């Protein structure tokens, strides 16, 4: 009996062996990498994130900077060191909780406070203190509306200038001189300097606001109180 072919045939495929694509071993590694489903999901997620960042963050920033550069008037002057200190005091004391520094583009705002706010006005103020409530009046056109003395009196005792005011006083920004007079300290002077900065470049070239006219006509108390004090 011939047993020459009793053993397994070397050419026959092994039972249970996985079929192999003859060409798969020759595919580039990056092709095999992309064929994995999780890789496609990862690349899609990263691509969406990058696109969103550019579309919602980078491009608007570039557009805003261009608009600020184009619209800034020639007479614009940057804040002085004292005005910057006043801006710091304004933030520290939480003035934005009750005051806005943003004139809306509505007839009532324009009539009461002057031209609507523009982006270039805030290029020196970061973070911007636009505020969300007007328990007190908007301050973005405060430059030239009242004297420094009025501001000091109002900061020390708000009801001395506006009897119906609900604004708290800031007596810690003042000290008593030898002769008994109350004098503003460095923070009070800086804060008033910052208030006089707000709208300075607007008021020098634009129309005078109703509140500014009232102040210079001796009716500052009325203009700061009444309908402007509560909104």
TrEMBL record:
Gene3D superfamilies: Cytochrome c-like domain. Keywords: Heme, Iron, Membrane, Metal-binding, Transmembrane, Transmembrane helix. SUPFAM superfamilies: Cytochrome c. Residues 1-23, 203-231 are annotated as: Disordered. The chain crosses the membrane at residues 40-62. InterPro entries: Cyt_c-like_dom, Cyt_c-like_dom_sf, Cyt_c_oxidase_monohaem-su/FixO. Pfam families: FixO. One of its GO terms (molecular function) is electron transfer activity. Signal peptide: none annotated. Residues 81-199 form the Cytochrome c domain. This is Cytochrome C oxidase, mono-heme subunit/FixO. It comes from Nocardioides dokdonensis FR1436.
